[in-house]
Amino acid sequence: MLELAIQGSKKYFGWIIALLVVIGIAFGIYRFQLAFGLGITGMSRDVSWGFYIAQFTFLVGVAAGGVMVVTPYYLHNYKAFGKITILGEFLAISAITMCLLFITVDLGQPMRMLNVLLYPTPNSVLFWDMIVLNGYLFLNIVIGWNVLEAERNDTHYPGWVKPLIYISIPWAVGIHTVTAYLYCGLPGRGFWLTAILAPRFLASAFAAGPALLILLCLFIRKVTKFDPGTEQIQSLAKIVAYAICLNVFFFLCEVFVVFYSQIPEHMDHLKYLFVGLHGHGNLVGWMWTSMALMLVGIILMVNPFTRKNEPSLIVGCVVIFAGTWIDKGLGMISGGFVPSPLHHVTEYAPTMPEIGITLGVYAAGFLVLTLLFKMAIGVKEEVRA
Amino acid sequence: MMETSRRTFLQMAGIAAVGLSAKPVLDAFAAEHGGAEALPSVKPGPDGLKAKQWAMVIDTRKIKSSKDLEPMIEACHKMHNVPHFADKHHEIKWIWEEEYKHAFPTDVAKFMDERLERIPFLVLCNHCENPPCVRACPTQATFKRPSDGIVMMDFHRCIGCRFCMAACPYGARSFNFQDPRPFIKESNREFPTRMKGVVEKCNFCAERIAVGKQPVCVEVSKGILTFGDLYDPNSAVRALLKENFTIRRKQNLGTEPSVYYIV
After folding, report:
1. What's this model's pTM, rounded to 2 decimal places?
2. What is the pLDDT of residues B204-255, one digit of tens each?
3. Which of A40, A107, A119, A130 to mutate to test the interface with B (most CBs of B within 10 A)?
4. Which of A116, A326, A364, B55 has its CB surrounded by the most CB atoms within 10 Å?
5. Which chain A residues are Cβ-neighbours of B137 within 8 angstroms?
6. Which residues contact B186 (CB under 8 A, 6 or more apart)?
């Protein structure tokens, strides 16, 4: 099937080359980071995780969101999603690829990465995160490939794939739960020390992942002969609507607990994010924007008129994706480190090289996504013809 | 009956024989797979000091100003090749001073004892009995030495994920954001320098304890610091703990810090 990925229009190759150029430039910057150290980033002694880990956290959500098309189809026999499950699975593969790349670029000594395998440490959540991420990547590659190949050959996928599909469903929940556990078991970090962090992560995942999938489906319908289907897109939109409502509700639960209890260690982080603390407030504008975007998203997705109307559906998906990205990709990680456990306020902002490397990882993810989607759609066009 | 017991005897003997001959192999296996033997640490010499859990008592009554703390900080950083970075963001520190409100941010009173509000507090790795950093580390690069409770760093195994920094509620860990070597004024050739991309922190002078010496900060502290075995009722630290009211940093978190402050 790989040959399907290397046939295409001039525009297709133009896009591939553009991605390769971005990846190439970013790789150059990464070489510099490798030689100099993580000092080229905006991270510090107080804010020791930054943009890379935040993007990783957000993208685990995008990957987990794929389960929202897999579950209805395989578990509830919702036939309509059969058309697009492969897109959900391939989106998950590219998102996990980016996650693993973000972890790699964040390591101080990446050449020692295999130490995690050489000295397995079950008491470290990072060990389990490595297992669930790689496991989910593996599951989706095997499932996606076999199901797509079966579709191409007009046969049913082999029987042994079925148990893997069933395993992949709780596994998707597992990747984001374990990723939340990276943060929510740490003493002295009031912002993350909350049992609702994993549910919150999942809610935002089930909004952001399907929202991106809707946008991709609409794009595919426009540029290829394959139509993912109106019913499918509308069903996804309903999932996004519920999930984004839950995400905001969970956040409000957090706000209630933190501010009704009045415990300073827990309040200070939210204060820093939304009103600023001791005169520091780099993220205040961002966080209110995020809230506003998610609120607009709720209005557009819950209301059937705006959900069914394509232009407003697109706006809804874009604002939800952007809103959840700010929430997790900016606020969630920095907000946990500011103020520091010693109550110093050290702010964080990514540097240009850091943003460059980040864009490179995103470009690599989009390259994987493009190639996989090209194959999937190629097969679907072939089968129809 | 006879038959059974003879068979049991033979079985036991067989197992014992296998066990005896296999023990060295098993030991080697255990060592290779991260058993206690394999953990890199400073091998104690014949005069090495021993303890179940090393602890430190800081008598803040003897501290008047930063001047009293400078020699300890300087001696430690000099001995351990701690680099000096002008950029606060990339700072490396093993032992340093903080105001009370930062050392004990959750125990600040509205109207505080003037002395406590004014004097600097010396802070360092607490060598917790229940260390969150050890729990978080995915490679056992930071580990608690079973022999004496010191929380150690293996600079060669650390992958620089900085999970331990997120886990430490005392901000005791520093990360080498760049090559530290050019920023060491005079290098002490008896202690290793570090490379970029690894985490480091105070090691309670494990290398000095191994040869029967007290930690260097204690040695130059003029009696402000006392070091000893927390579980030896006759140790110097226990004598101080018995007679004085002490506090520890963020006691409510359950990490059981081994650094006590007489206030």
Report:
1. 0.91
2. 999 999 999 999 999 999 999 999 999 999 999 999 999 999 999 999 999 9
3. A119
4. B55
5. 121, 124
6. B78
